[in-house]
Amino acid sequence: MKPVNVGLLGLGTVGAGTVNLLANNAKEIGRRAGRVVRITHAAVQNLDKPRECPTDGITLTTDPFAVVNDPDIDVVLELIGGEDDAYKLVMAAIEQGKHVVTANKHLIALHGNEIFAAADKHDVVVTFEAAVAGGIPIIKAIREGLAANHIEWLAGIINGTGNFILSQMKFEGADFAEALAEAQALGYAEADPTFDVDGIDAAHKLAILGSIAFGIPLSFDRIYTQGIRGIHADDIAYAEEMGYRIKHLGIARRNDGSIELRVHPTLVSEKALLANVEGEKNAVMVYGDAVGPTVYYGAGAGAGPTASAVVADLIDTVRMMSVDPTGRVPHLAFQPDQITDTPILGNEGFFCGHYFRVQVADEPGVMSRITGLLAQHEISIEAILQKDPETAGDDALIIIVTKPVIEGQVMKFFDSLDDLPETRPGLVHMRVAQFED
Amino acid sequence: MKPVNVGLLGLGTVGAGTVNLLANNAKEIGRRAGRVVRITHAAVQNLDKPRECPTDGITLTTDPFAVVNDPDIDVVLELIGGEDDAYKLVMAAIEQGKHVVTANKHLIALHGNEIFAAADKHDVVVTFEAAVAGGIPIIKAIREGLAANHIEWLAGIINGTGNFILSQMKFEGADFAEALAEAQALGYAEADPTFDVDGIDAAHKLAILGSIAFGIPLSFDRIYTQGIRGIHADDIAYAEEMGYRIKHLGIARRNDGSIELRVHPTLVSEKALLANVEGEKNAVMVYGDAVGPTVYYGAGAGAGPTASAVVADLIDTVRMMSVDPTGRVPHLAFQPDQITDTPILGNEGFFCGHYFRVQVADEPGVMSRITGLLAQHEISIEAILQKDPETAGDDALIIIVTKPVIEGQVMKFFDSLDDLPETRPGLVHMRVAQFED
User: Fold this and answer.
1) Domain with CATH 3.40.50.720 in chain B
2) Is A376 helix (H, G, I), strand (E, B) or coil?
3) Is B433 close to A297, i.e. CB distance below 8 A?
4) Which residues in chain B are closer than 8 Å to A313, comparing Cβ atoms?
């Protein structure tokens, strides 16, 4: 099948991330999409600037309209950001009959109504998954996954910079200015942090979420918006004393005959899932009448997560361009001829920590013999407990958590543990796993 | 456009939930899908049994093959569950050129490879979002939302019954048998709980997740599977003492040249997001190379959540049946002519709790005057703190969290608070919200 030619506008962090992702995962993406997608042209501001990605095979130009107007380009990726130029370019691409993928929340929140009307008129699609909550497929979840629901409300941590600052204030007791400076030093906040800390960026995203949840026009200028500049470390401490965490949330909710759209610092119970989303992460909670509460969590910004969403939109667009069944989403995600029968590992090969509880005769030296056996099998201890509950009579219970190790070694250790005269039958064994949030 | 005729196999809890959802949200679904979807036929076991849903306009029959073979039926919903009959019916539907939506994890895990091969041959699709994690759109997230990623691993709480039992054991100190009995009394567990508590149901779901994450054939019989019968309340307590929670997880992970597929009780750090998923809820964490960690959380079972996924699949299928652009996913989720300009509520109409911190002259009776003003404005107090920090000199800080109230009342209260002679300038005000997890 003919490859799809993509024109890229902007080769900054997200643009380069997108080029890198398409290159690094070309095989995997091809196995899924069943069609080759290639970036043939890219518009940049300065041809001589060093790039964060390879540009072999990509024609670079400083004229973005040349990319938009090139008849060989099927899809335009708008990754320059900002409002005015992006608007003109996206509208020009639409008028040329090209599909558009954009990560630009500012553009969609302010001009989405006109852009989508033009796209419908010219029979093209404009996708914008990357505009909200970075790599989390939240637009897809609401627009398609929850399409059967009457959405009652949604609430989200949709500005990673603001959440990072609040987490720093909470964990370090830092005041706002210190936490902001740290966010800037780490590259999470811009030199001019206005959009992030005054809630404007979150309001852009909430405008989009509110529209797709409730079927209303994009209404950025009607969102009640309050940022996080006014939050003191003291308030975070007082809130915590009363069982709350302070999160900067975007909230959209139906009322009788009206809709609430609001962005503001919010106290939430420390037990709520949203209260425990820390650092630069994003999370959106969506409540549908049939499904109840659902939550979507992940990275809200950064080159990789944003590129993940941009390329997912690109794959969706390419699929939609095929009228034949081979363009459909494959049943098992990969094209039928690309399903590979990779070997499945047996449990002796699992690498993880292990928990075990063993009952032993409470005799001198028994702990030393058990830890000696562990050492002999090159198994390191993470934590150890000894208990003498009444149910064990004169015996003791020894509970050990090991560091990660190949399970085969643990099985051999269990055999030798079983051979100790002090060991009672009935060893309890479970695995331990770490999952980086 | 011609309505899509749907034939339903099975009118039990999930089948009735699907009929109810299509009826209750007909308008909303129509605004999104742009096409009328109607259930015209349903196969049931007993024509005389009372139904949990209206059946007006639905032709009932006891012969499911009559539904599958009816030339007027475009899409078959297989909601009878089980293995043998479901397999025959789904294969017959496919051979008749009908698309299929199923919630049957058992069927897909064991026979998906043959079913999808037949579907590809007959140019139809078989969708199965409801088969894994109920209403959470996890299949869509992995298959489409993360399609640009090389998935490294995934780990999930994918059996709500098992998670409910472990939560009961943790919170109530119940032993396994007691917690199972409670799950049965509440309808979360079947009379024969084998599939849930021995990990078979989770392994069915993990087989599906592993395939779509890694592009391997469905491999149910090669999953290492261990259930939760062997877990003692003691182990839960000992694990907690060492900073862990015990969760029953399905884990799929790439290794060098092989793949791990395993279902077993697992100790996870008490700080991990998965550790804090309680009760009958499900959550799946997916780690992609570009996006990093993402989490999807929601109801894993029940009529509403399962119907939410079944109807989402149905809408996807209907969209795919349209070759014309009107069948596409609309930009703002709803068809362009169905976007309604619902009024946006101003902040004086917000209904929520309020946090405020006010500095006051520390004089006798000041607290009484403030709480008196709250009472006068019909605002109830949820929590109250008084602080005398050095920074406030001879003044005191009063921090109050109110119960939910219309914001207009709070604004009037602030005005009258401002009029008190003891009140210093610089009131801090934030909102409080509750989100049911």
Assistant:
1) 4-134+305-338
2) helix
3) no
4) none
Contact B293 A299 (CB under 8 A): yes
The torsion of the CA quartet B114, B117, B118, B124, rounded to 10 degrees, works out to 130
Instruction: Look at residue A320 in the predicted model and tell me its pLDDT.
Output: 87
SS3 (DSSP) at B402: strand
CATH 3.30.360.10 domain locations along chain A: 138-299
**Architecture in CATH of A138-299:** 2-Layer Sandwich (3.30)
Mean pLDDT of successive 10-residue stretches along chain A, which has 437 residues? 90 96 93 89 95 95 97 96 95 97 97 95 95 97 97 97 96 94 90 94 97 94 94 94 95 92 95 93 97 97 96 93 76 88 90 95 93 97 93 93 96 96 94 86
In the residue annotation, B271 being an active-site residue is answered as no
Residue among B116, B294, B339, B398 with most chain A CBs within 10 A, to mutate: B294
Q: How many CA atoms lie within 13 A of B368 on its CB side?
A: 3
* Interface mutation vs chain A, best among B310, B430, B434, B436, most A CBs within 10 Å: B430
A432 vs chain B: nearest CA distance in angstroms? Answer: 4
For the segment A80-138, what is each residue's pLDDT rounded down to a tens digit?
999 999 999 999 999 999 999 999 999 999 999 999 999 999 999 999 999 999 999 99
DSSP string, B55-115: -TT-EEES-HHHHHH-TT--EEEE-S-SSHHHHHHHHHHHHTT-EEEE--HHHHHHHHHHH
Place of tokens 């030093």: A185
Strand partners, B255: B258
Which chain B residue has the Cα nearest residue A123? B325
- Determine whether the interchain pair A148/B344 forms a contact, defined as Cβ–Cβ distance below 8 Å: no
Chain B residues closer than 8 Å to A107 by CB: none
> Chain B: nearest CA to A60, how far in angstroms?
24
For the domain made up of B4-134+305-338, the CATH class stated in words is alpha beta
**A271, A342, A435: residue with CB nearest B258:** A342
Of the candidates A188, A68, A138, which has an alpha carbon nearest to the alpha carbon of residue A308? A138
User: B138-298 — its CATH code?
Assistant: 3.30.360.10
**Which contiguous run of DSSP H or E holds residue A414?**
helix A407-419
Instruction: Name B372's Cβ contacts closer than 8 Å, sequence gap at least 6.
Output: none
Contact B436 A232 (CB under 8 A): no
Q: Do A258 and B344 touch (CB under 8 A)?
A: yes
Q: For chain B, where do the domains classified as CATH 3.30.70.260 start and end?
A: 347-432
Which CATH homologous superfamily contains domain B347-432? Answer: ACT domain (3.30.70.260)
Residue pairs spanning A and B at CB distance below 8 A: 440
ipTM of the complex: 0.94
Which of B216, B238, B316 has its CB closest to that of A385? B238
Inspect the interface and report whether the beta carbons of B430 and A246 lie closer than 8 Å: yes
Dihedral (CA of B349, B350, B352, B358) sign: negative
**What's residue A1's pLDDT?**
67
Alpha-carbon distance A297 to A278, whole Å? 11
Q: Do B260 and A385 touch (CB under 8 A)?
A: no
CB contact under 8 A, B295 and A298: yes
Distance from the B177 Cα atom to the nearest Cα atom in chain A, whole angstroms: 17
Q: What is the mean pLDDT of each run of 10 residues along chain B (437 residues)?
A: 90 96 93 88 95 95 97 96 95 97 97 95 95 97 97 97 96 94 90 94 97 94 94 94 96 92 95 93 97 97 96 93 76 88 90 95 93 97 93 93 96 97 94 86
Check the CA dihedral A302-A307-A313-A316 and report its sign: negative
Q: A230: which chain B residues are within 8 Å (Cβ-Cβ)? A: 428
Dig out the tokens for B335 from the structure. Answer: 């068809």
Residues of A in contact with B294 (CB under 8 A): 135-136, 296-299
